[in-house]
């Protein structure tokens, strides 16, 4: 006796189920990827800020003169400037480089590093604790700036 062959291929219902499952998995993985990107951008901007902070202190000590570490949230940048003539030594635009939004408690920040390696509130605007926050994609990282110029990660 000869059996009839089952038709090959998939039914429309099977294809629809596979497409729906694929769409759900794609949406979940895309959301996770954007969260990872946001966290990475904010963390990298924070790390760059710590590097600029250390450079400002080192330049002040090395040159024996006051150096400003300026955070401009409207431009999204961090600058190292000579205090006496406002000559810019280094600039990093964190908004462009890492697609982050930079905010500073109390507006802008000008931290004056002296030749002794600590901050002097007479030539900067940091007289109490300030916070610099880097935000991307709903993720943020914060740096606390203390009156003597210390920078530390703030949870």
Low-confidence stretches: none
- Rg, alpha carbons: 26 Å
Oligomeric composition of the shown chains = single chain
Beta content:
25-35%
Detailed description of the structure:
The model has no long low-confidence stretch (mean pLDDT 87). The protein is rod-shaped. A 4-stranded antiparallel sheet has the order 3-2-1-5. Strands 4-6-7-8 form a 4-stranded antiparallel sheet. The chain has 2 helices and 8 strands, in the order H-E-E-E-H-E-E-E-E-E. The protein is 37% helix and 29% strand. It is an alpha+beta fold and 155 residues long. It has helices at residues 12-63, 94-98; strands at residues 67-72, 77-82, 88-93, 101-104, 109-113, 130-136, 139-145, 151-154.
Question: What's the arrangement of secondary structure elements?
Answer:
Blueprint: H1 12-63, E1 67-72, E2 77-82, E3 88-93, H2 94-98, E4 101-104, E5 109-113, E6 130-136, E7 139-145, E8 151-154
Antiparallel strand pairs: 1-2, 1-5, 2-3, 4-6, 6-7, 7-8
Short description:
This protein is of the alpha+beta class. It has two helices and eight strands; from the N terminus they run H-E-E-E-H-E-E-E-E-E. It has a four-stranded antiparallel sheet with strand order 3-2-1-5.
């Amino acid at each position: 006796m000869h059996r009839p062959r089952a038709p090959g291929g998939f039914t429309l219902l099977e294809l629809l189920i596979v497409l729906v499952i694929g769409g759900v998995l794609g949406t979940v993985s895309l959301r996770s990827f954007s969260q990872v990107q946001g966290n990475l951008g904010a963390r990298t901007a924070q790390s760059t800020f710590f590097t600029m902070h250390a450079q400002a202190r080192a330049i002040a000590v090395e040159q024996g003169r006051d150096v400003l570490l300026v955070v401009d949230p409207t431009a999204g940048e961090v600058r190292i400037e000579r205090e006496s003539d406002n000559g810019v030594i280094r600039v990093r635009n964190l908004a462009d480089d890492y697609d982050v939004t930079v905010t500073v408690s109390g507006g802008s920040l000008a931290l004056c590093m002296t030749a002794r390696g600590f901050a002097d509130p007479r030539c900067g605007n940091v007289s109490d604790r300030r916070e610099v926050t880097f935000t991307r994609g709903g993720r943020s990282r914060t740096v606390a700036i203390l009156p003597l110029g210390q920078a530390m990660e703030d949870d």
